[in-house]
Design goal:
globular; Rossmann fold; single chain
């Protein structure tokens, strides 16, 4: 971000207008892979460590209940993946299964519960919040991450085509 400050000599006009302008550069990596949480797939570890490769990154995972129902081993796979890459990542608590679907975006009690959960785990701006699920679910988790400590790093793992196009990249 760059901001230009202009020193004004003397008294300014009472109705003077000073034009200010700034820009913020933003970039993010988009990874394509299959079996993200397989022990032999390094993509998730690479995503966590992309900017700070020598740091052990703390993260918490929320899984869409609809995804967990169709992929019963997912929570176990995530924990096993974190263990396999333990030198670069630390999973904080068991991945939590959370209701999915469009209705979750209109549930302030759920948002508050997830905020409390993150605070209870000691999540700060140096940790990651990971959401695994459909588009509406990723919107919910993204909102929770962005409103915790004025924004916690967030990784989206979309599991539907709509989630890939709308919430994952769009």
């Amino acid at each position: 971000m760059s901001i230009e400050l202009v020193k004004v000599e003397g008294n300014a006009e009472p109705n003077a207008v000073y034009q200010q302008e700034f820009s913020v550069r933003y970039d993010y990596a988009v990874y394509f892979t299959e079996h993200l949480f397989a022990r032999d797939n390094p993509v998730f570890s690479q995503a966590l460590t992309r900017r700070e490769p020598n740091k052990r990154h703390r993260f918490v995972v929320f899984v869409d209940a609809n995804v967990a129902a169709s992929w019963p081993a997912l929570v176990h796979d995530i924990a096993g993946h974190a263990e396999a890459y333990g030198d670069s990542m630390q999973l904080l608590g068991r991945p939590e299964v959370v209701p999915g679907g469009e209705q979750v975006k209109n549930d302030p009690a759920l948002v508050e519960r997830l905020h409390r959960h993150l605070l209870g785990l000691g999540i700060d701006r140096h940790a990651f919040v990971v959401g695994v699920g459909g588009g509406a679910f990723l919107d919910l988790i993204g909102f929770v991450a962005s409103t915790t400590h004025r924004g916690v790093r967030h990784i989206r793992v979309p599991t539907t085509v709509l989630g890939q196009n709308d919430s994952g990249v769009g």
